[in-house]
Specification:
Elements lengths: L1 E5 L7 E6 L7 H9 L3 H8 L9 E5 L8 E6 L8 H12 L6 E5 L7 H14 L20 E5 L3 H27 L7 H9 L7 E5 L1 H6 L3 H6 L8 E8 L8 E11 L19 H15 L5 E11 L10 E4 L5 E4 L6 H16 L3 E6 L4 H6 L4 E5 L2 H14 L3 E3 L4 H4 L9 E2 L7 H10 L7 E5 L23 H11 L3
The structure holds ligand BES, manganese (II) ion and zinc ion.
């Protein structure tokens, strides 16, 4: 979908005009009413339209204008108005309606340029589809809008805001959605690494580390997870040096299990197909790195993803195996399905010893238990550092990707103690998301760190959020971008 910003003026194609509940109308809406000799206000009256959020009515071929269809949407009260949600709702309402060009009239509404840019972002997020593998879609089942114009009083300012910030956010989020949606026979650790490698085009340095090197680095916990797979495990490091030379970076780290069958501790068959999305943490990191590079962020950021497939096989690791992690700590693998923490513990150790980051944040679809605790509404936030936790909560407010903090305490940590090794990789039935986080904490030392468990946030079937029209949400890319923008840029 092409986005453009224009100054006012009646639209060709279809116009979406806006009205606040307290009788403030977009300039276009008033214009149409004058041109049509009051036809629009008569229609509003007939439709009992008062401008409340959720109300709408249509006028086809309004008199005196070249517009095919005028779709008027209630914007609610001015103080409650969110331009991004509004843009998303407008596109959702018209996406499949056969319209190719839609103008969203935000002119004369006292909105900021950022609001106008965010309305466009909402439209982009709402227009997302993953139809790559559908060959029989008829025209009426495909989105028809090819151009979204935002009419606004200061189009050049809105255009700049979109180009420099909100446009790249839409790209990063949609990239993360694409990656999460790809089927696991197409996106495996090798093809995924190759796809990330292509991001060098954006000015990112991309380094792919294969299994031999991972083993020689001592990353046996990570490598153990992929032993049952026909694909080689890969660690991919994306470097963006947009900040001051020599300044320590922020590290963002993602779990990239391209398919999680559970390994020898095999998962039940029902719903197992969703485990193609078990690389959602890595997708957030890749999406964020895309956004940072596309908007030329003035910060030093390292993105690292651990890509691996967790399969049962004669070569796969067994429950009872003891592996030595890169940190030297030994782990008794009691459940091969608790594999995400085995990947991340080595990547976290690598990141902190190699880059001495100012802070590091990892994202992972780590536990089913976080779905029980928080559903799809919030991702779980765990941190050893109140400042980093607060930074992320603030970024979460601004980006709309919600977080809820959960505790880390020695009592939970103890649940990981093992008789046979330094720790085991499961903590028992209770507090599953917390013990998973405690496991990771054993590998971060005193580096300021946070872990986001996004197992509930990364995807949702039948979400009613107009900004999340597909199964995969792309959660995290946007949040990380905001976290970097707020805390690591000049
Ligand atoms: N990838 C899963 C977690 C998951 C579950 C993500 C549902 C998304 C939706 C993870 O690797 C896993 O299998 N975790 C186990 C841990 C358990 C064995 C301690 C779980 O949550 O059951
Ligand atoms: Mn698992
Ligand atoms: Zn997993």
């Amino acid at each position: 979908m092409k986005i453009s910003f224009v100054s006012a003026g009646a639209a060709a194609g279809t116009g979406v005009a806006v009205a606040f509940a307290k009788s403030k109308h977009s300039a276009a809406l008033s214009d149409y009413d004058v041109l049509s000799d009051g036809q629009i206000s008569k229609a509003a009256k007939a439709a009992d339209f008062t401008g409340k959020s959720g109300q709408s009515f249509d006028v086809y071929a309004p008199a005196g204008a070249s517009t095919k269809r005028l779709h008027v949407m209630g914007a609610g009260a001015r103080d409650d108005f969110d331009a991004e949600t509004f843009g998303a709702k407008a596109v959702k309402a018209l996406l499949m309606a056969g319209e190719t060009m839609v103008t969203l009239h935000l002119d004369g509404m006292d909105l900021t340029p950022d609001d106008a840019a965010r309305a466009a972002l909402g439209g982009v997020l709402a227009s997302y589809r993953f139809d790559n593998y559908r060959t029989k879609l008829t025209k009426d089942k495909k989105p028809s809008i090819t151009t979204l114009k935002i009419a606004y009083d200061n189009p050049s300012k809105a255009r700049a805001s979109y180009a420099n910030f909100y446009g790249p956010i839409g790209e990063g989020t949609c990239l993360a959605r694409d990656l999460v949606s790809e089927p696991p026979n197409k996106l495996n650790p090798e093809s995924y690494a190759a796809r990330i490698k292509e991001m060098s085009k954006l000015g990112l340095k991309v380094e792919v580390i294969g299994e031999k090197k991972l083993t020689s680095l001592g990353m046996n916990a990570f490598v153990g997870v992929g032993l049952g797979s026909n694909f080689e495990s890969k660690m991919v490091i994306m470097t963006w040096n947009g900040g001051k030379k020599g300044e320590k970076p922020a590290c963002i780290i993602g779990k990239g299990v391209t398919f999680d069958a559970g390994g020898i501790s095999l998962k039940p068959g029902n719903g197992m197909w969703d485990m193609k999305g078990d690389m959602g943490g890595s997708a957030a990191v890749v999406g964020a790195m895309h956004t940072l590079a596309a908007r030329k962020a003035k910060a030093n950021v390292i993105g690292i993803v651990g890509l691996v497939e967790n399969m049962p096989d004669a070569g796969a690791q067994r429950p009872g195996d003891i592996v030595t992690s890169m940190s030297g700590q030994t782990i008794e693998v009691q459940n091969t399905d608790a594999e995400g923490r085995l990947v991340l513990c080595d990547v976290l150790h690598y990141a902190r010893t190699k880059y001495k980051p100012k802070a590091m944040v990892n994202l992972a679809t780590l536990t089913g238990a976080i779905l029980v605790a928080l559903g799809h509404e919030h991702a779980g936030l765990f941190s050893n550092n109140d400042e980093v936790a607060q930074q992320l909560l603030t970024a979460s407010e601004e980006s709309g990707e919600k977080l809820w903090r959960l505790p880390l305490t020695p009592g939970y940590d103890k649940m990981l103690d093992s008789k046979n090794a330094d720790m085991k990789n499961i903590g028992g039935r209770l507090a599953g998301s917390i013990t998973a986080a405690q496991f990771l904490q054993r590998f971060v030392g005193d580096t300021p760190w946070a872990h986001l468990d996004i197992a509930g946030a990364a995807w949702e079937s039948g979400s009613s959020n107009p900004r999340n029209p597909a199964w995969a949400s792309g959660f995290g890319a946007r949040l990380l971008n905001r976290w970097v923008a707020d805390n690591f840029e000049g």
